[in-house]
Design a protein that fits this description.
The chain has about 280 residues and is of the alpha/beta class. The chain contains nine helices and ten strands. Helix 4 crosses helix 6, helix 7 crosses helix 8 and helix 8 packs across helix 9.
Amino acid sequence: MLTLHIVNGASASGTLKHYFEQNKLDGTNQVLCFDDYLAIGPLYDGNKVNDHQLLNQRANYLFDMLQIAHLEEFADATIEDQWLIDITKDISKLCHFNFTHYHKVVIWHGDNAPERSLLYLCCHIIDEHKLYHISINDYNLSTHMLRGVGACSLEMLDFLHNQEKKINPVDCVQYAQLWQTLVKSSKRPDSLLRIFESNEVKSVGEDYFDKQILTQCQEQGQGNFVLMMALVGRVLGLSEQLITDTFIIARVYYLIQNTSLEYQGDLDQPRQLQVRVRD
């Protein structure tokens, strides 16, 4: 009997695939990597993935964020059309996937917004009778908080892969409704970011991390310029939320634009760029 394991991101997918191959379990266990990062941007109804307007809205939002973050590979606007095609394919991959060949579908997640949102989406689109989940934060596996499945070691996976739990029908319906609530909230410009708080995913504004960025910049620099990437790393390290460095970089550029931060260097060279809180 085949089991499908759904994980969020290449890191989690690669580690889990390696574990199954190393332990000769890959014959009965397959891994589906869902790359889309559901903690940011407009969301979509998983049962309406043929609505290209919704998919393109999300894809455009993500592409714009990557350009705002001055990532070199997205500096050329001519790649936008192909990139939008690629990301739209990834977004719709899960929703078009054929689950009929699998006896079980196991969603791996931690206590964070992107992975918990993926759990909600899966409950929205997959037959509840097949659905199981593994919550990595239900177990005392580490001296520090595991923020996501990608942080699990092979030794942790050896324990976790036998801890799958059936998602009962009541919870499945509730999770599916929570996904629809997140989709509805994401249509508002003040609710384009999602965080995990009080054991639930909450929609907040894109400026949620701005105060933390400014505070850490002031503490690190004490009035002097600091490397932007060092600041980004510190914000990520101290935050209780699982968020991408690209989003934080984009917010730093926004704070430069609105003059909360001043900068030194070339805006097109984020690794050399230095910033400080404006007096």
